[in-house]
Amino acid sequence: MLSALRTKAGVKARRSYTGNALMFAFIGLLAVLSALPLIYTFINSIKPVDELFQFPPKFSVARPTLDSYLELYQLASTMWVPLSRYLFNTLFVATVGTIFHALFASMAAYPLAKHHFPGKNVLFSIIVMGLMFVPAVTFMPLFVILSETKLLNTYAALIFPGIGVSLGLFLMKQFIEQLPDAILEAARIDGASEFRTFFKIILPNATPALMTVILFQFTQMWNFTQADLVFGESLKVLRAALDQIVPKGDPILRAGAGSAASVILMLPPILLFILLQRKVVETMTFAGIK
After folding, report:
1. Same domain? 178 vs 256
2. What is the DSSP letter of 284?
3. pTM (predicted TM-score)
């Protein structure tokens, strides 16, 4: 009988090892497939011109070169505004917009998650409905509002539209709901105000959700391309400048510089995601998104 139990345990262990190996192999395959577009973009950026237009396209490069990056730098050097100005505008808009969005989304999510007031469910339903609208749908109302408030052609025209995005509020609200009410009641018994409770208890415990909101919002603001909201060249962001250097209408013209520009644009969000990926997974688990 003892030998039979050992046999069953051995079979179970072997099955477990086999199942884990298959699972990790499947996950690794999905990871490779997800990374293929990024890998292909980077490989294209270091290809010489003759390899860039090979058909069928290849995922390898025989003679790697940095000519595409040099071409992009030379094209950017001929522009009226230095490339450093576009880079500063992008970092400024993305950083300020992300900070204010994360702060306001957290402050709005706290009463929705932990307080009861008339119209709470209706208000949250409107917020969820806002997730369905793409920027192209809301552009005209946004343009009219910014025009009436005299904010067109300013940094505010690039920052304000990103502050009220619904996704950050939704994620923060879903995460804060999971926090136990006991710690909030203990803070109120100790005489803590709502602002003190929010900044000393809610925010520190909602760090995973906050980091996720920062990641999503920074990525969106970094790739913000609404050039119609600013007219001065010195106010435009890096994405708008690169779109001028590499025209979208002709994929052949300056294809190498376009690949180099794509790599430059995708690097900051990827690096930020690598730093915050554990927080993102934890937030998605709490928010109920599978």
Report:
1. yes
2. H
3. 0.76
